[in-house]
Design goal:
homodecamer, alpha+beta, GTP Cyclohydrolase I, domain 2, 3 helices, globular, binds calcium ion, NADP (chains A, B, C, D, E, F, G, H, I, J), QueF_type1 (chains A, B, C, D, E, F, G, H, I, J), NADPH_dep_7-cyano-7-deazaG_red (chains A, B, C, D, E, F, G, H, I, J), QueF (chains A, B, C, D, E, F, G, H, I, J)
């Protein structure tokens, strides 16, 4: 079979692994990376994650969200199965929506040192109101720092129609 | 449980509180805040509020809207259950659509002193016409003042399709 | 102008009336009727009412629903502006969703003595779950009684997709 | 050009006619027919008419609807341009929604003597409520009379979602 | 390669053929068949044909439709590329919508002698009205004749929403 | 009832008025204004008007459109019921689509002297083509003049999908 | 406040209760009921539950579903907050999709002894395939037993379009 | 963890297995079953399979479809990962759409001996036409044989709108 | 009737004309203009043309597209019925998609000498791929030349979702 | 037939060719070009390719995506049937999503030397997460290099809603 060589994937231990362990408490150490094969090009990778769930820190009731993560890689790229296990580790964790989204972005910056990254959470409603936090980041003293400001300034000028149904 | 510490939530008296009182007249004093844990970052929080209702000041008939509130916090953040009770207090209050949207934004500026905020109301039709007011604000003498002008200039260039059905 | 004669509308006191009073407590007496001009024909009339709101009897928080009412008239037909004022009177009234829908149908049976009627409420969620009660009725010892059983047996075999957004 | 022979269209005076006159008061006499070329087969023809408008008989405000007309022809079929002119003639006419729909069906029965016909009007809201009347008819003492009962019994068990937007 | 044997396709001369000729006048003789390999089973095959166009017999303006054809095969099945060429041959042909749909069904009955067949045309509007004819057929003195009556009786009780946009 | 004071509404004579007269010929004098209560803020008000109808100046056939009007008020604001009556007055008026949209904007500039305004008409098709004119305006020698140029340059780069159905 | 009397709600201990405990292992005992106030009428209640999550019994990866529950009550009705806590108790529980749906229905039959009930789970995909189990039940030796057979025979003849996006 | 016991899954060798082999030629032997735990109840299981691809037997070009499979189990149930591998084995296989759908159903009948089963394929277009075959089956001399006839008679009376885009 | 004066329409010979001739080969000379009545204002006019069809220059099979044309008029404006006849003249014409779109724009520049124009064709797929060419133009040495560059740079950053169904 | 001359198509060997060979391993040499007939104009061509499939390099399971390719041609343009065969050649090829998208763009740059190009892949989910890589390119030392940066900075600020269904 042509394509990706297996030797470029030695850091990837979870993908296709039969005995995957799921962590039931918040665990950023499960994240893994592989090498960007196109480091001379700036390009985007987006993860759509509609199966995110966590708990309210005060009432302990479950919260549900779709998390959208978009980034421009530098040297390292996050492997998607490890990302899945990382997001799973919020399952029994309690945090406000605004904090979860910032935590996810901080952990991915720590892991990959990306050129640019943004995280948008779209939560289901409680008491008739839903909350959608969005944060972003560009590497300091590069043009991506300016890009982060530009994208924040232009963020979500067409809020999607919400009816709670 | 990992996550938000309860001691950061001492101002939050309404969330999870069994004996919540609903105010039947306009009451901005019900709004509560908690501290922004990421004050070094500019990021957005959006509230989708599809259950807003008020009365016409002249005919007293009920009006219904979805209210979209987006802001960039500074030090304080509005707690969502108190926001719900605040919006509830318009239930038997009479105002024009254009005024309700401005009032909500003024009260939230007063409460949180945010870096940036915008409020968009999308009302159901009366007599075959519906009205959607939008206002925004950036903190004076910061780059968010310019951001408010920029977003107003680019506001709603793709009006959603309305058929009144 | 050709069309409906004004003399057939003498019972209709609310439509087009400038000084309409809105009742803030449950009030079925506001309902008015006019005469069916096609009593020899069985036909359906449906009211779509997306602006229904009431209160939870235990927590007093507001509930919102779209109410769909369909009926086959006999001699009398409900006038739509009076129906609007009647539904408004649930605004500060506390009831379970299942009870509101049954109450609306009972009041309309009492008012119009229709051949057939059905009422379906589709409420917004609380705590991640939404509730949609449906009831119907056919006049006893007519073929419409059998019609009610038939429509109940076939009710809602394709539940609409709900995502709480 | 192959296809319909012009000599089968001698009754069709309006289609393609440059000097069409529009009637500004209700005028069923404008309706024209042509001959059904498949009288040995029962088949349906549906007209979708989203540009119907009339006036309220009491307040004189304009009303708008989409009218859906479906029928099984017998000997005569209604020509679509004459149908358009007929529906135009309601433009300055005042009637309740329930009456308009019955009137349209009565006029088409009178014109075509169809085996089966049904008319469904879906109107835009007034005061937060929209009204959708539906009537049907099957030729007496044929199996189409039973068909009309059957279709009424099964009518609209999945009301379309209405949000008034 | 496993699968269909080439020797079962000897009648199929058009599929994959480089020098296909397109007929510019109505030409049912272009239709080809292949053998049903599951004649002991009653099953449906549907063709979705959104690229149908013909001419008005009176004004010669072009008409456009999506044609839906569903049938239960008996011994022969229509080959899809020949169906495409057949539908193409209406391109410069003039006929009323009601006639086109009946003609297509008649030609396919003649070709395949199917157990059951139905054809539904959904045309774009002219003068604000669109027309959607539907016809069907079941083989005489089989249970498919009754099936055709049953499906006609239940036809299109939920007309799709049309806005002309 | 808290909210808008009645004394700020003395110019508003039509809202809630029982004996409203509908003008059957083009009549901009029916338009009324009330005072902007937030003149120190630039904000948008949008009217969605899906019930606009006029006549073709050459064939006299009816035309239908949804009109979207967005503006930034200066001192005066148009009252919505008077806007409804104004748009009604095009009902028996003959004009090209491009002219209607320009006329509406000119009349509203004349009435309110707004900081910025734009009008977009989306008409239903005739002969398979629909026309959507858009015009805008910013007050001369203010930054809103530049805003008008900017919004024209960026206008409608994502045309909505049209199928004529 | 008019409406439901508090004394009819003595069994309802969870609704509006501040200190709700969430069970992290499967726990049907958390379910509570209240009395049906319309026992002489057959009517439907539907719960839409888009926030259901459980674990795969073999790989322990999380599964997500929307659960639709519809029933005709007899004497008792399930209270919705207790239903929420019950569904929460599947959060760390491992089961096949087909078993979860049957278990939920069995527990609700045990709890309420309803006249009729059905449960439909629509799960998100794993490996490109999603699974949607559906079961139903009618009380033995009543007409609801026949109703269950009838609804099974007619179940889901129009599968919703799935694209995995 | 509560839930399914591992000992009921001894036949399930592929689910969660790291070294899964993909068969590149048609291979029904890869299918595996597990035991139905609710054999006293008739209930439906549906598989949504939007990632089906095969080859044209004549031109060898790839074809793509969404396959919907619904069945009522008897003693055995097909395991979903083995179903995925089975459908994968059509990847380089050549067959007409009508044959693929019948083959899939025949193989699943052979495997599970279900009470009832149906398979619907919805293919992407070639030359402007798409083909959607549907077949079904009920166990001989049970009420499910009659159910298969009933569902065929009622099949797809509302064809989904297709635009080829 | 108020509105457009007939004397401004003397160039308009096709609109409302009974004996319209349809050209079966490519014919730009059929295009007609009328005078812009608002030449001091820059504004947009968009034509939505979902009924465009042409032939493949190599295989002669028919191609179908929706054509979107937007322009800012200078002195002359294209009359819509003549545009319809012009687009009809591609019906039996053979060209690549990229060429048709450029040809249409070139002919309209030649006809109207507009300030700005753009043409976007969205074709139906052949062999699983669809092609959507887009071109634009601004009058040389005006700010509209820069506008054309700007709009090309920003073109279609959100490609519509295509599934070929 | 008017239109494209056959002599401009001498490089086009695959379009309309009966005996097309499909390559089962990655093969960029199958790509063919034809000459741009509008080289003095900058314009876009977009290919929508919803039938892309490849294999995971580690697990060998199939992956599916819709690929969107947009470019501004210089001298050469890619012929669409050869593009189809090229994309087919990924069918049994193993690569990460991020690599496939970059490879496609690199091969098309090599083939056509376009002024600008971008490629966006939208893949179906694995384990609850889907991945959508996007890359772009502008010819070095032209304004299209800057255009690539600009479009990357503005990329996908409105991620489409993903529910995995
Ligand atoms: Ca929604
Ligand atoms: Ca929804
Ligand atoms: Ca409309
Ligand atoms: Ca909700
Ligand atoms: Ca609503
Ligand atoms: Ca709507
Ligand atoms: Ca439509
Ligand atoms: Ca149309
Ligand atoms: Ca449309
Ligand atoms: Ca989706
Ligand atoms: Ca089309
Ligand atoms: Ca599509
Ligand atoms: Ca697909
Ligand atoms: Ca489609
Ligand atoms: Ca979900
Ligand atoms: Ca989907």
């Amino acid at each position: 079979m042509t394509g990706r060589k297996e030797e470029t994937l030695t850091n990837v231990t979870l993908l296709g692994n039969q005995g995957t362990e799921y962590a039931f408490s918040y665990n950023p150490s499960v994240l893994e990376t592989f090498d960007n094969q196109h480091p001379n090009r700036d390009y985007f990778v987006k993860f759509n994650c509609p199966e995110f769930t966590t708990l309210c820190p005060k009432t302990h009731q479950p919260d549900f969200a779709t998390i959208y993560i978009s980034y421009i890689p530098d040297v390292k790229m996050v492997e998607s199965k490890s990302l899945k296990l990382y997001l799973f580790s919020f399952r029994n964790h309690g945090d406000f929506h605004e904090d979860s989204v910032n935590t996810i972005m901080n952990d991915l910056i720590q892991l990959m040192d990306p050129r640019y990254i943004e995280v948008w959470g779209k939560f289901t409603p409680r008491g008739g109101i839903s909350i959608d936090p969005y944060c972003n980041y560009g590497k300091k003293e590069t043009r991506f720092e300016e890009m982060a400001n530009y994208r924040l300034m232009n963020h979500d000028m067409y809020p999607e129609t919400i009816t709670n149904r």
